[in-house]
UniProtKB/TrEMBL annotation:
Coiled-coil region(s): none
Signal peptide: 1-18
One Pfam family per UniProt: BBE
Family designation: Belongs to the oxygen-dependent FAD-linked oxidoreductase family.
Protein name listed in UniProt: FAD-binding domain-containing protein
UniProt xrefs under PROSITE patterns: FAD_PCMH (PS51387)
Organism: Delitschia confertaspora ATCC 74209
The keyword Flavoprotein is annotated on this UniProt entry: yes
């Protein structure tokens, strides 16, 4: 044995493996990765002046992953090569779609390779077969108008900037789920690159177990490079009624009582986002509601009238194409919610029933907290869904996602000035989240994985009943835990 190696091994007996000798600072990533990539791929380092404009930025800067390098693959083979190479050198990696996710688990990703999927811009619409095929670089708005133009529709989420595949691997909740179910209910197949670098298709007929897992736990099993969805004939010719209402905070109780009164009748055509916030400029509490109704003005009117009856300070109602509803909501301010690079996290609660008394108290506590803290710009929002379509999906087509019963998702979107206030914000929102959970109709905390804060644990993210099978599939498809840093599935759950 060469003497220098013998000395090294003797000096560092526990480190004598290729794995632990790896040192990000002294490794030439270009030399490792460049040779195997296609000409369309590129490599970007954080010290380059154009780094931030060359790669997908994150929505939240809270608990961000720490990347040593960003690689933008252009082909499935590139993704395969990056995964295999990273595995060989035992370099951690994380896929980035639209960058909208934020989880404390991301902060554990250090010195990693960022696999930025923004080159995957596939978009195919087949109106005969009723199929949409897209790549993971595609946000909702990048195909919504194309579907509208051919009279089709798909259940997307609220904010037009979110990537369809990134949302789908959680569930893809949205204002249209009352019509056709969740994004996962429209999903028909995916192509993904697995932890071992294999390219596989998962659908109801191929790798059925993996297809089940992808629908709710999809960040844990591979990198999806293409997804095919069923598309539907657009209701009401693709046009919907979009209405916005702004209220003085004094209607707090009345607004939630209205919502509670709809618990048995909330129609499937309707999507609704309600927001409570503290208006610092005006030093005043405020509430708002934005609704979409996939039907005629006459059909929407009874619902609009009930919002008007509470006495908005301002309101409007218009008929618009569905693809523009996300930007139009909030009196045309919908794009504000897409601003990136802002420090925030989002504890949230899924509920089965509306409890006006609890919501009124929780909103008041939110205002009290915000009013006296100028560094806090958080909001509370509620999205309301009709669950008839999501609950009608047969058991064997449901996938993992355990939140089909959610009539509402309530989210504390905590915007504030940085880590110095992490504890104070957590200590404020944690009891509020518990109050909402206590009257949610579930008797315990449940939420949607893509809105989760990250401290809920795998039973909440994936459903206790699903964990034995998920854990088994994890051992089969990703035994070394390469994926899922955000919301890890335990490898040995039983
Ligand atoms: C403003 C805003 C509005 C939102 N509105 C909605 C909504 O209406 N409905 C809804 O359902 N959700 C909504 N979300 C939540 C959204 O679904 C999640 O943030 C989702 O993770 C976004 O996907 P992304 O690709 O943009 O995020 P990223 O942060 O890039 O990815 C999130 C996670 O998924 C993994 N991932 C991403 N792409 C792939 C892929 N192709 N293959 C495998 N793993 C992948 C990443 O590694 C990461 O772990 C919203 C989020 C924001 C910030
Ligand atoms: C890293 O490798 C690339 C390609 O092999 C080479 O051009 C570059 O000079 C190397 N960088 C350093 C710092 O050695
Ligand atoms: C890129 O953005 C990060 C914050 O996300 C910032 O810290 C850094 O200074 C930026 N780099 C450049 C070159 O602008
Ligand atoms: C809101 O309502 C309160 C109580 O009715 C009233 O005092 C206040 O002036 C109102 N604010 C605005 C901006 O209308
Ligand atoms: C959902 O909508 C359907 C049809 O509009 C309606 O029959 C049903 O009662 C609604 N469900 C709930 C829980 O409101
Ligand atoms: C905001 O209003 C409250 C009373 O509602 C008052 O006590 C406080 O001084 C006001 N703050 C500012 C900055 O005007
Ligand atoms: C889409 O909505 C925005 C915001 O309301 C509006 O400014 C724009 O004119 C709309 N575009 C079309 C084509 O309707």
């Amino acid at each position: 044995m060469h003497s220098y190696l013998a000395a090294f091994v003797a000096g560092f007996p526990l480190l004598a493996t290729a794995q632990s000798l790896f040192d990000a600072r002294s490794t030439n990533y270009t030399a490792i990765f460049a040779s195997g990539l296609s000409s369309g791929a590129s490599i970007h380092f954080p010290n380059q002046p154009d780094y931030n404009t060359s790669i997908v930025q994150r929505y939240s800067t809270w608990d961000q992953p720490d990347f040593f390098v960003t690689i933008k693959p252009a082909t499935d083979q590139d993704v395969q090569y990056v995964i295999k190479t990273a595995n060989r050198y035992n370099i951690p990696f994380l896929a980035t779609g639209g960058g909208h996710g934020s989880e404390p688990g991301f902060a554990k990703v250090k010195n990693a390779v960022n696999i930025d999927l923004s080159n995957f811009r596939e978009k195919k619409i087949d109106t005969k077969a009723n199929r949409l095929t897209i790549g993971p670089g595609m946000a909702f708005f990048e195909f919504e108008k194309d579907l509208y133009d051919v009279g089709k529709h798909i259940p997307v989420g609220n904010a037009y900037c979110v990537n369809m595949i990134g949302a789908t691997i959680g569930a893809a909740h949205g204002p249209y789920q009352g019509m056709h179910g969740l994004g996962i209910d429209a999903l028909r197949s995916v192509r993904l690159v697995t932890a071992s670098g294999d390219i596989v298709t998962a659908s109801d007929t191929q790798n059925k177990d993996l297809f089940w897992a992808v629908r709710g736990a999809g960040a844990n099993f591979g990198i999806i490079t293409s997804a095919t969805y069923e598309i539907y004939d657009a209701p009401n010719g693709g046009n919907l009624v979009e209405a916005d209402f702004a209220y003085n905070g004094s209607v707090n109780a009345a607004l939630w009582q209205l919502l509670e009164s709809w618990d048995e009748t909330y129609p499937r055509e309707m999507g609704l986002t309600m927001v409570a916030s503290f208006n610092r400029a005006a030093n005043a509490t405020s509430l708002s509601a934005s609704m979409s109704f996939f039907g005629t003005k006459e059909q929407a009117q009874p619902w609009v009238d009930q919002f008007v009856a509470i006495g908005p300070t301002r309101w409007q109602s218009q008929t618009i194409p569905w693809w523009n509803a996300s930007q139009a909501q909030g009196f045309g301010t919908g794009s504000n919610s897409c601003r990136k690079g802002v420090y925030n996290n989002h504890p949230s609660v899924g509920t089965k029933q509306t409890n006006a008394e609890t919501y009124t108290k929780v909103v008041q506590q939110h205002w009290d907290f915000a009013a006296s803290r100028p560094w806090f710009n958080g909001i509370m929002f509620l999205q309301r869904f009709n669950t008839t379509a999501t609950l009608a999906v047969p058991k064997d087509k449901q996938g993992v996602y355990p939140g089909r019963e959610f009539g509402s998702l309530i989210v504390f979107q905590n915007f504030y000035d940085g880590p110095a206030h992490d504890t104070e914000v957590y200590n404020y929102q944690n009891p509020l989240r518990a109050q909402l959970a206590a009257t949610s109709g579930f008797g315990k905390l449940r939420t949607y994985i893509n809105y989760a804060y990250g401290d809920e644990g795998p039973e909440v993210w994936y459903g206790k009943e699903n964990l034995p099978k998920l854990s088994q599939l994890k051992r089969k498809w990703d035994p070394l835990n390469k994926f899922g840093a955000g919301n890890p599935i335990p490898l040995n759950y039983s």
